[in-house]
Specification:
Elements lengths: L3 E6 L3 H14 L2 E7 L2 H8 L6 E4 L8 H7 L5 E6 L5 H6 L4 E4 L5 H14 L13 E6 L2 E6 L3 E7 L2 E6 L3 E5 L2 H7 L5 E5 L2 E4 L5 E2 L3 E4 L2 E4 L2 H9 L5
Parallel strand pairs: 1-2, 1-3, 3-4, 4-5
Antiparallel strand pairs: 6-7, 8-9, 8-12, 9-10, 11-12, 13-14, 14-15
Length: about 230
Amino acid sequence: MEKLLCAIIDDDDISLSIIEALALKTDLLEVKATFNDPMKAIAWLSKNEVDLLILDIEMPTISGLEMFRSLPVKPAVIIVSGKAQYAVEAFDLAITDYLLKPVNDYARFLTAVNKVLARRGPGTTSEKKSDSELFVKSDSLLLKLNLEDVLWVEASGDYVKIQTSDKTHVIYATLKKVEEKLDPVKFVRVHRSYIVNLSKISNIDINNLEINKRIIPISGTYRDDLLSKISIL
C-alpha cells in the first residue's frame, strides 16, 4: 500500500519529535517535512503537496487553524493541541481528528491515521473495517453488531463487554484492541475501563456520565478528550 505523504507542524520541538516518531511507527505515513515555524510551513506547502497535515493550533505568528484556512489546497488534517477549547472550531473546518497533548498513546494516534485512510476510500486502511458494523466471536459463530446500537464497551479482566440496549456481548480481547476498531468521532475512551458511544450520552457531570440509566465514570486522563468531541453551548 502506498504511504500517505505528511507534514508535521508544531512549535514545540519535543512534541514535534514525538509525533514524528509515532508517524514513522505506523508504517503508513511518509514524513516529507517537519516545521516548528508555521510561516515556513506555509511557504513549503505553496510548492509541495501532502496528503495529511498533523498540526498544532497555538503557535507564534499564526494559529494552526488560521494557517489551514490560508491554504489553497487543503489536505486531510489531524489536530494536535494542548487544549480542548478549539475542538468545535476545528471540526467546523472538517478536520479528520483532534488529539490532545501529550500525544503518547500509539493506538489512539493510529486510529486517527486509519480514519484519514478510510476517508480516502476502501482498501486503504491498515485494518479494514466498516464504519457501521463489527463482527464479534460468539462460541463458533461470528455475530454482526451494528455499531449504532452499541451503548458502551467495558473492560472486564481478560475480556471486554460490548453493551447494546438489549444484550451484553462478552469477547476475549483488550479494550485497546476494540478501540482501534471504532470510529473515534463516534466513540471515545472516558476511563481506562470504558469506551462510550457519544450519541448515547444523556448527561455528564464532573466525574460521571449517564447512558441508558447506567452511570459510567470519567477519569481525568480522558476528560479533555471527551469534552473536545461534544458541542457545548
